[in-house]
Amino acid sequence: MGAAIGLMCKPPRLGKTRLAAGLGQGAAARLAAAFLADAAALAEEVALRAHAARMAFHAPPDAGAEVAALLPGWDVRPQAEGDLGARMGAAFGALFAAGATKALLIGADAPTLPPALLELALSHPAEAVLVPALDGGYCAIALRRASPALLDGIPWSTREVLAATRAAAARAGISLVELPGWHDVDEAADLPALRAGLAGQAPGGCSHLPPWRAQNTLAAWDELSLG
Hints:
The protein has helices at 17-23, 25-50, 64-70, 84-97, 115-123, 161-172, 191-198, 215-223, and strands at 2-9, 53-58, 75-78, 100-106, 128-132, 138-143, 176-178. With 227 residues, the protein is of the alpha/beta class. Strand 5 and strand 6 form a beta hairpin.
């Protein structure tokens, strides 16, 4: 198989809770649908360039038909049970079990993530490669082999994710490389950075590589009159 890309996702109807707190459930669901479409298009573009296979891992488990309808041509599978680390670990396990020699995982909350960053992550010789996020986490992770030590015991959804991952890599003797960072979109405070990316600009503190042309997100932004 060579390289493989995994997309961690959920049905857009579930929206994004923190984003909904600032925008309302309807607007958050509309953006979530656009984010998923753009993340899938981004993964497809990178997969085409890297000759990589694609899998989508969805939650909740009963959302398979809904997610498959949104991602035609994808190998769609349910996420495992457990915290995010357990679910990511199982996703990596599935990618390597299918024959991948290098696997990349992304989510659907960074729709303008530069494709060149993902290509760099896939091609880098390090055992583990991260695209850090401005909020203290990361937007993408690439591995050359299953490395559960990088994912176990991490305080997910906190600003300590990246620091804890660095410490875990050091303890396990895993070579870890951090590429220039990007941002994800979890709440209304993240929207100015998203707007910059949609305009083709690098948000403050982010990589200067060209953002992904997130056309679905741009359409949703204009539709919702977000400014």
